[in-house]
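**Paired protein data**
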Amino acid sequence: MPNSDCPVCRTADIVCGKWTLLVIRDLADGRSRFCELERSLQGISPRTLSLRLRALEEEGIVERQTFPEVPPRVEYALTDKGRALVPIIESMRTYGTEWLGATGACSEAPEPVVVAA
């Protein structure tokens, strides 16, 4: 890392991994199960999602709760440290809307274009 004392470098080290901000974005709405996150993050492999969640858990950004049920149920949620990242995501949403013309919903796939014959 170029400067481990730089707050921007330290934050970027955590949030700049592929899919990381999108996982945080989806958890900003509340608790989610692994399969729900996998569905909302179209294109992410289960292995990558598992690695991202584990890394975020190690950083104290995500907490994992396991319920003693059969089959076992696991839910993920943001910690206070994780919720502190939500304003960054909201700023990115605003920037994307105002400067990049992105107006779609963030957590669902775009509607397919139907061409009339």
